[in-house]
Design a protein that fits this description.
The chain is of the alpha/beta class. It has seven helices and seven strands; from the N terminus they run βββαααβαβαββαα. It folds into two domains: 104 residues, Ribonuclease H-like superfamily/Ribonuclease H (Nucleotidyltransferase, domain 5), CATH 3.30.420.10; 72 residues, no CATH class. A five-stranded mixed β-sheet has the order 3-2-1-4-5, sandwiched between helices. It is globular, with a radius of gyration of 17 Å.
């Protein structure tokens, strides 16, 4: 499996651009990928999205950065070493949609399967089978489990802000390992005891 986090200029893969991709091979976690790119010409940028990932309007158009096409091609080449290409992440359908849109925009064949493993679902199931209360955002009729909640639940500090795609991927991988197997995965989190298992 490939643990992936994508940082973008917004939430709509048709209007917004990838800015960075962070990933690691879940079965060989020392195999990691990180790359940044400039936004594609004409891409929209939401102020809130840039706040989250720490980018600026100037930095997303930096001509020294590679194109979205080149970043996605490099990511696909890196991914070829993994046995399973299913994405793992907090909201992997978001990451898949952005990579698929970038492939379509730049005439790259999209190679990844659409089935993925979502750490939000893992945490929901982990809480439920143990008879623990799943936190809810009742006014909006949805769960109230973001990545920071899940990190705390398994014993890891919240992800540093602003977000970085590789840091996000590392957090997703450690969460998945602790929730699925009850064991630590990465040396970056070795000092943190596993909670809630």
């Amino acid at each position: 499996m490939i643990v992936v986090d994508v940082e973008t200029t917004g939430t709509n893969p048709e209007k917004h651009s990838i800015l960075s991709i962070g990933a690691l091979n879940f079965d060989a976690p020392e195999q990691r990928f990180y790359g940044e790119c400039r936004a594609w010409d004409g891409a929209h940028a939401e102020e809130e999205a840039l706040k989250i990932n720490g980018a600026t309007l100037e930095s997303i158009h930096d001509p020294k950065k590679q194109s979205e096409h080149d970043l996605v091609m490099s990511f696909i080449e890196w991914a070829r070493t993994a046995q399973s290409w299913n994405f793992v992440g907090q909201n992997p359908s978001f990451d898949l949609a952005f990579v698929a849109a970038a492939c379509h925009r730049t005439h790259i064949e999209f190679p990844f399967p659409h089935r993925s493993l979502d750490t939000h679902t893992m945490a929901y199931m982990h809480l439920s089978v143990r008879g623990k209360e799943v936190p809810m955002n009742l006014p909006h009729h949805r769960t109230a489990m973001n990545l920071d909640f899940i990190l705390r639940y398994v014993g890891i500090p919240e992800e540093p802000k602003p977000h970085n795609a590789l840091t996000g991927a590392l957090c997703h991988a450690e969460v998945a390992s602790r929730l699925m197997f009850g064991k630590k995965l990465l040396p970056e989190f070795e000092l943190y005891p596993i909670l809630s298992v």
